[in-house]
Amino acid sequence: MRYFVTGGTGFVGKNLVRRLADGTHEVRVLARTSSNTEGLDLPGVTRVTGDMADHDSLRRGMEGCDRVFHMAALVKEWAKDKALFDKINVDGVDAICRIAKELGVERVVRTSSFIAIGQTDGIVADERAKRDPNHLHNDYERTKYLADGVAARHVADGVPLISVYPGVIYGPGELTDGNIAVKMLLDHMNEKLPGIPGDGERKWTYAYVDDVVDGHLLAMEKGTVGARYILGGEVASANRFFETFESVSGVPKPTRHVPYWVLKTVAALCELRAALFGTYPMITRGAVEVYKHDWAYDCSKAKNELGYACTPLEEGLRKTHDWLISEVTRRDRDS
What does the pLDDT read at residue 244? Predict the structure, then answer.
């Protein structure tokens, strides 16, 4: 089987490519010249130089391939050029679908995000949720929502597309912007975390990275074309997340809670500095708005139709802590 993978140099993508590289498949990974490709020198894995804005590179990668995992996205809170969000997250989906249809690709699994489904204040939602387009908090959320519309149009036009929606992904792997939960835990372990936003009682869905990779593979094998599948895990508040981490690591949970109005003020100053000097803001006002809501989802459809399974939060955080300790030790040894 020949696979083309976009986003294969990222957090979830590298984990997926390693699973595919079992010696029986040919795997082509789209990679920018600046991408970190460490760990991808694997049997059957080749790199296709390009990016989501270079549609010729997408075509080169897909030619002769049976299946496509489209995982690439601009996963950031802010970009100096906001048009990049549309170019990568929206136009990229359009290009993947269009080229896949032209080349007769057998199946495409597209990675979206829980944030595209929308906030779930007070409830636990599933794939049938109808989101309010008037409550989009940042350009990442806006473009992931718009990409859903693009995907739906291509499905109606005959593209064999399946979409998956991971929760907040955590676990061992690259410390990229897609691994924000683990970067936060590392800051907490190093006493660099300012505190928990608000009262810490907003509920989010946490998905262990190995489960999410399993979900992608299951969607490719068993998913219904046109279907959407939430790849979630346990629903927990920030308070319970850190309490659970304390129980498996011995690191005391944060005691400081930062009011939203303080975060909004700091975010405004960070954005002003970013606009003046081009530096990446530590936090944005859009991110603060995201923190103010529940993002809780039910993954029963993926369990029932695909055989998806969820790692308990305590187990996942224990594995994550053990990996962080080993990774920090390795870096100290290699430095």
Answer: 97
